[in-house]
Design a protein that fits this description.
The protein is about 25% helix and about 30% strand. It has helices at about 50-55, 75-85, 95-105, 120-130, 135-145, 175-185, 185-200, 250-260; strands at about 35-40, 65-70, 90-95, 110-115, 145-155, 160-165, 165-170, 205-210, 215-220, 220-225, 240-245, 270-275, 275-280, 285-290, 290-295, 300-315. The termini are far apart.
């Protein structure tokens, strides 16, 4: 006599249905263990951000660690988080801090999720399309996938900084705060920033060389990553946009484009794809690098990085033009 095993009638548990009260994690990558670094002193974060982040993360079925960054312990805390090799490392801090951590992670490190905790938030806006860090955190957890992020690097012999959205070199770098003020509805402040930028116009034109070609002159050179470039479809290089207003009237028109809409539409702007650039000036070069102001030396170099780091972001990313 042969026993026959009949199939069980008990239903299998549904693996994709979370317990009541929990949200569904992304299906694109495994997020078993995540770490979030929080800088409570950053302008867009707030003193209770660590507790608020922990509360949001508790809605998801993953192991989480929340770390409040401290001034004297910053390097050690970042190194410890990277060495822990989590599935994703969230960063709730200013633009500079997020960029530094992404640069340290590199292409072989954990997935980085830079949340909007700074002033301009260029990279988080490009990835998540929002300046609200709580919305960005949930989008990364629920819709995130592995995204290769290209970028660039600016050096001047002493200074070195990576960027993943844009670097603006020259006096029009001062227009960036004006555009941010417009975004926030602070039109009086935007006008004050624009007037300051116009006062600096024509005080020192740049000489620049693209991919080793002959020097050209411009009021400013903007170098834009493929992630947010409207002129490039693939990671073929940085979009280099030269600004060349010939008089005060053109400069005012270009400033208006820079503040209120897409400045690439202005006839005083020309663009092309490049791998590297050298910029020179008689005086020091003002710059805004992913929203962070800088004052470079008389000569600076820029190079394209095809894969700077890997982000946890929706596919495709928001790619908001935040220049």
């Amino acid at each position: 006599m042969t026993d026959t095993l009949s199939p069980t009638t008990d239903p299998e548990p549904a693996a994709d249905i979370p317990p009541e009260g929990q949200h569904v994690l992304t299906q694109h990558v495994a997020l078993g263990r995540v770490i979030i670094l929080v800088n409570p002193l950053a302008g867009g974060v707030g003193p209770n951000a660590a507790e608020e982040a922990a509360a949001i993360l508790s809605d998801y079925a993953c192991e989480t660690t929340v770390v409040a960054l401290e001034g004297g312990q910053f390097d050690a805390q970042v190194k410890h988080a990277l060495d822990a090799r989590p599935d994703a490392l969230f960063v709730l801090a200013g633009d500079g801090t997020a960029g530094t951590i992404a640069s340290r992670a590199g292409p072989d490190g954990p997935l980085i999720a830079p949340l909007p905790g700074g002033t301009m938030n260029m990279l988080p806006r490009a990835l998540y399309g929002t300046a609200d860090w709580k919305i960005a955190l949930r989008r990364a957890l629920e819709e995130g996938a592995r995204q290769r992020v290209a970028g660039g690097e600016v050096t001047d012999g002493r200074f070195k900084q990576a960027f993943y959205c844009a670097a603006i070199l020259g006096s029009p770098a001062l227009w960036a705060p004006a555009r941010e003020a417009v975004r926030e509805g602070k039109f009086g402040l935007a006008w004050a920033y624009a007037r300051r930028a116009l006062k600096r116009a024509f005080t020192g034109r740049l000489r620049f060389s693209l991919d080793g070609r002959a020097d050209r002159r411009a009021e400013a050179l903007v170098l834009i990553s493929p992630m947010i470039s409207k002129a490039m479809d693939e990671h073929t290089g940085l979009e280099a946009a030269a600004m060349n207003p010939s008089d005060a009237l053109q400069a005012f028109r270009l400033a208006a484009h820079a503040v209120f809409d897409d400045w690439r539409q202005d006839p005083a702007v020309t663009t092309k794809a490049i791998q590297q650039a050298t910029v020179r000036a008689r005086s020091r070069i003002p710059a805004v690098i992913d929203g962070e102001p800088a004052l470079l030396r008389h000569e600076a170099h820029v190079r394209f990085i095809r894969t700077a780091f890997c982000a946890l972001a929706p596919d495709p990313p928001a790619a908001e033009d935040s220049v």
